[in-house]
Amino acid sequence: MASDLTLGATHNQILEQRKSLKKQIHSLPRDQKSKVLSHFHGSERTDMSKQRLRNLREDDKYQDTSNMSDIQRHTLDKRKRRQNPALQRQMHRRETKRLQNAVAAADAEEILHTHTTGLVEVETDMERTLQLTQQQLKNEHLQEGVARNIFDLELKEYSPYKLRYDRSGRFSLLAGAAGHVSIIDQHSLALTSEFFVNETVRDACFLHNGSMMAVAQEKNVFVYDDKGVEIHRMDGHRRVMGMEFLPYHWLLATIGHSGQLQYQDTSTGALVSQHRTKMGPCGVIRQNPFNSVVHLGHTNGTVTLWSPSSSEYLVKLLCHKGSPVTSLAMDRSGRYMVTGGGDSKVKVWDLRMYKEIHSYNTYGGAPTCVDISQTGILGIGHGCHTTFWRPEALRVKMKEPYMKHQLSGKGAESLRFRPFEDVCGIGHTMGISSIVIPGSGEPNLDSMEHFTNPYMDNKQRREAEVRSLLEKLSPDMIALDPDAIGSVEESNLIQRRQRMRDVAEEADARKAEEMEALKNKKEKKRMRGRSKIAKKLARKHKNIIDDNMLKLKELREKEKAEREAERAGVGGDGDSDADDETPSALKRFF
Questions:
Q1: CA distances (Å), 212 to each of 209, 261, 270, in order?
Q2: Cα 221 from chain centroid (whole Å)
Q3: Do the beta carbons of residue 301 and residue 318 sit within 8 Å?
Q4: Between 440 and which of 97, 328, 373, 552 could a Cys-Cys bridge form, CB atoms 3.0 to 4.6 Å apart?
C-alpha cells in the first residue's frame, strides 16, 4: 500500500489530491477503471447502497414532527439549512483516502493474481478441442503434477460408485453400492481411510469439512469420522436416496423412498423441519449455492424448490413432460439450472424468470448425472459417455461440446468437478475415473471462506469450526431472494404504518375473494349413486310445494293418526284392559 497522502495536508491540498485522483481514474482503460471503481464502492452491486441513501432522504423529507413544539421544528429546519464545514472537510478527507486505497488495491490485484482461468484454444480452424483425448493431454501437454490426476480405479466388486469432494478439494469420498466407503487424499493420492458397512449404500457426502461424512445406508443415515468410526445414527431418516449438506447453515437435507424432505442440524443434532413432498420416491437433490434453496427432481418430470421455513414448495416447474428427472445442477451465481430427463434431453433454465432457455440432446442413454464447475463448464454423463460444454453454453446454445471422454462400456453414475482444480471425478459401474478438464477450476482461493483452504492443519481446522459455528445462519433465512434479509426497512413511523395498512387491505381483499368463490362453488360430487340425475332432481324439487305434495302430506298424516289410534286401542274389541294387565313378556303369545 502507498503512504497516506492526506496525512498533514490542508483542506485545499486534499481537494487538489481528490481532483487529480478522479482525473487519473477516468483516464484509465475501461477494464482497469471498472476494477478501481469496484474497490472504491466496495462491491459491484451499488443498487443496495443507492436504495439505502434514497430511503434515508425519504425519511428526512417525511420526518414525523407531530410531537415537537414550534421552537423545536424551527431549530430542526435551521440545522438542516446550515452547512457543517468540519463535517465536509472530514468527508472530503475520507473520500480521498478511499480513492487512494482503491487505486492501490487495483494495482495489487494485478500483481498478486498471477493465475487466471483459461480454456484450451486451437491454433487453426482445422483443429477442434473436441478431438483432444486424456491420453494426449497426459503425454504431450500437461505437467507431471497435473498429469497425475488422470487415472482409473477399477473396483468391480463393490460398484457402482458415487464420488464427492469436500469444499477444499483436498479429499474425495468414494461410496460403493455394495458397502465400500473410502476417503482419498487428492494431493498424495493416498488412501486416508477405508471401511465396509456390509449393507447397501445409496449415497454419501462430506459434512462441514473432510473429517466427517454422512452415509445413507439400507435403513438409516450414519455419521462417520475420517477414520471410519461411527459417531451417530439418524433413526428418523429412513431409506434415504439423496443427501445435500448446506455449509452456511450446518443442515443436512435428505430425501428418500417416502418422499419426505428432512433437514437435520448437524451442530446440535436437532431435526429442524420435515416436509411431505406428496410426489412419491425421490433421489435427485441439489442445493442452489446462491441462496441454499434445495431443488428436488421427481419421477413425474417436475422440479420443486424447498426451504426449511415453508411447509409447501416455493416453486414447481414441469421440466420434462412424460419422463422423470434424472439429474440436476445449478451454477454458482444461482441464475441457471440444468436438468436431465429420461427423454435424453438436457435443458437449461433461467431461475430469474423460471423459463427454459434451450436444450441439448444426449446419445447413448439418458443423462444420469450433470454438474457445473466453478467457472461455469457444464459436465454431462450419459450412458458410457461424458461431454463437457463451455461456460457460454448456459446462456447461448452451442453447436458442439468443448471436450468429451469415453468410458468404454462403463455407465456413468456420478460426475463432480473438484474445487479449485481442473479435475473432474466420474463414478461409474466399474469404479472411479479422474480426468483433467482445463479451465474448470477457480484459480484464486478465497481464504475468508471457511474450510476452503486445502493446506489447513488441525489448529486451523479447529479455529475454522469455531468461527463457522459462530457465524452459522438461521434456517429461517433461506429464501428465494437472499438480499431481502439485509434490506433497509422504513424508519419513518408514518410510512411503516401505511405499509402495514396496505398489507392488511390486501389480505382482506384476498379473503373476500375466497368467500365469494365459496358462495359460487358448484355442487359437490356425491358418491355411490347420489350423483344420478333422478337424485339431483329430487333434491332440487324437495322444497317445491304443489297439489301432489299436499295430497302426499295429507295421506301421511292420516296414516300416522291411524297408527296412533291402534296403539291407544281406539276401535278395538274391548280387551284393552286385559291386554294392559298381561305382562309384556307374554304379549307375543296372544
A1: 6, 22, 17
A2: 22
A3: yes
A4: 373
Say which amino acid occupies 211. Answer: S
In the chain, the percentage of residues whose pLDDT exceeds 90 is: 56
**Alpha-carbon torsion 277, 279, 283, 287, what sign?**
negative
Q: Tell me what percent of the chain is helix, strand and coil, each rounded to the nearest 5.
A: 30, 25, 40
Q: Find out whether 111 and 105 touch, Cβ atoms under 8 Å.
A: no
Span of 40-54, 127-141, 389-403, 474-488 with lowest mean pLDDT? 40-54
Q: What is the 3-state secondary structure (H, E, C) of 128-155?
A: CHHHCCHHHHHHHHCCHHHHCCCEEEEC
Residue corresponding to grid cell 464502492: 41
Task: Mention every residue, 6+ apart, whose C-beta is less than 8 A from residue 267.
Answer: 250, 469, 472
> Is-contact 575 587, C-beta < 8 A?
no
Strands (E), 51-159: 151-154
Q: Which residue has cell 441457471?
A: 336
Minimum mean pLDDT range among 61-65, 209-213, 497-501, 525-529? 525-529
Q: How confident is the model over 151-183, as pLDDT tens digits?
A: 999 999 999 999 999 999 999 999 999 999 999
Q: What pLDDT sits at residue 87?
A: 82
Strand 315-318, strand 302-306: pairing = antiparallel
